[in-house]
Amino acid sequence: MQTDANVSPTGAGRPSLPVDVVMRREPVTGPMARWQSWRWVLADVLPAGAPLESVGHPAPAAAPQEVQPLPGAVAVDGARYWLHAGLLVTLFRDDAEGYFLNLNSPQPCFWVFWRADDEQLLEGEPVAVPQIVTLSYHDAGRWLDAQEKVDQVPAPPAVVDWLRAFVDAHHQPEAKRRRRPESFKPLTDRFGQPVRISTEKLPPGPGQQGGGHGG
């Protein structure tokens, strides 16, 4: 994949990367097999071309095709692999912080939001269909908060370099707020109520008035 493509949005569109997504259907083992025979998991995200500038929404992805496990893929007995082509990873300037957080994680990665499609069946069960692929930490967080199905795989070095070029061009670190000195904190009593400090002189207490004792 070439990484010297224009990373800044222009009038022609937004920086995007075509990708293919491979989903794995594998048998469930152990106690869970009593309730579920199969499960879908994300196997891989593969760059399918050089970065480009996309306009509008991507076209619907093509029908999935069964493929053989990729070289170096995790071998799972009885698993089958399905490739979904025609997806786009698009970068947005207003989400530069989300990409920055991904780059500064221990392992920058792709996140894939997918759903089981009742209209596509395999042996009578819904097929897992990827909906969106992102490089944004914020996107993944929102999907997980909404209890959607989200899986992740490491991004290859060329994709990380492409993302870093975009972040370097558009990420603006938030200005650090100056910490207020401790001496400026308001005084409070044991009930948390503000304490008023009087500047008036207190009258002298007993035994503190002027003059000596009588002889």
Explain what the structure shows.
14% of the residues lie in helices and 33% in strands. 23% of the residues are buried. It has three helices and eight strands. Helix 1 (96-103) crosses helix 3. The strands form two sheets. Strands 1, 2, 3, 4 and 5 form a five-stranded antiparallel β-sheet that branches. A three-stranded antiparallel β-sheet has the order 7-6-8, with helices on one face. The chain has helices spanning 96-103, 137-145, 157-170, and strands spanning 14-27, 38-47, 52-54, 65-67, 80-90, 109-122, 125-134, 149-154. Strand 6 (109-122) and strand 7 form a beta hairpin. With 215 residues, the protein is of the alpha+beta class. The chain starts with 13 loop residues before the first strand and ends in a 45-residue tail after the last helix. It is globular.
